[in-house]
């Protein structure tokens, strides 16, 4: 796994529970997987909770064998890997709030429909607030303008009933991405930060894309785990 820059130590510290939200295609699941593995390098007990009850593809539970092999516990809906679309979350999700020796990463379904799953745990998140991080890829059609991003943020916060605490820039065009794309996408991310008052927690990307950034924001080099077979 790529060694993470010490500049994101604040992200890794923070609150015990990390919630990753964002539009479908933003890369939130990749971020959730990488964050869980990076935390595992520093912590004895880490749990990744797949709360995506919307999208049956590209979900963190698909990587459960690799995650478990690296010491990350994985909790996911019973039907997540079966191809059956039944939006049911297991009672085991409550372990994230009960077993406080764990650092937990929640991978939440895209858009406001997915965020509704968070609303089920409103009492738990009220008792113990989490870092709720919104992932933005400004090269996706539904998050390519300030108006679209703000509409999505308002919808997610309303359905989840918990406020966002930070933004993660994941500006990318898949394998074609380089530093120029991340810098190009930064303009929109900074507009969102100014509009919401939320901090830009980090700029994420494949190592080759983030290697030559200017250091304005913390950098999170990530490994890609989810991709269709035709990209191999």
UniProtKB/TrEMBL annotation:
Entry keyword annotation includes NAD: no
Keywords recorded for this protein, A-Z: Kinase, Transferase
Source taxon at top rank: Bacteria
Domain (CobQ/CobB/MinD/ParA nucleotide binding) ranges: 25-175
Gene Ontology MF annotations: kinase activity
Pfam families: CbiA
Protein name: Tyrosine-protein kinase family protein
């Amino acid at each position: 796994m790529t060694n993470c820059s010490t500049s994101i130590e604040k992200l890794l510290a923070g609150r015990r529970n990390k919630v990753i939200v964002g539009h479908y295609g933003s890369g939130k699941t990749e971020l959730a997987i990488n964050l869980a593995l990076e935390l595992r390098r520093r912590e004895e007990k880490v749990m990744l909770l797949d709360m995506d009850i919307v999208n049956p593809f590209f979900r963190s539970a698909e990587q459960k064998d690799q995650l478990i092999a690296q010491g990350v516990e994985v909790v996911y809906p019973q039907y997540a890997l079966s191809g059956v679309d039944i939006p049911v979350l297991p009672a085991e999700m409550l372990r994230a709030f009960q077993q406080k020796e764990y650092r937990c990463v929640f991978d939440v379904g895209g858009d406001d429909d997915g965020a509704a799953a968070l609303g089920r745990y409103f009492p738990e998140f009220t008792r113990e607030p989490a870092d709720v991080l919104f992932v933005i890829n400004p090269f996706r059609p539904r998050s390519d303008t300030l108006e679209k991003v703000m509409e999505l943020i308002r919808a997610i916060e309303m359905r989840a009933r918990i406020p966002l605490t930070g933004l993660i820039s994941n500006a990318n065009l898949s394998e074609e991405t380089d530093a120029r794309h991340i810098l190009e996408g930064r303009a929109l991310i900074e507009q969102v930060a100014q509009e919401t008052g939320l901090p830009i927690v980090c700029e994420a990307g494949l190592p080759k894309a983030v290697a030559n950034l200017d250091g304005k924001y913390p950098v999170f080099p990530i490994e890609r785990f989810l991709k269709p077979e035709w990209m191999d």
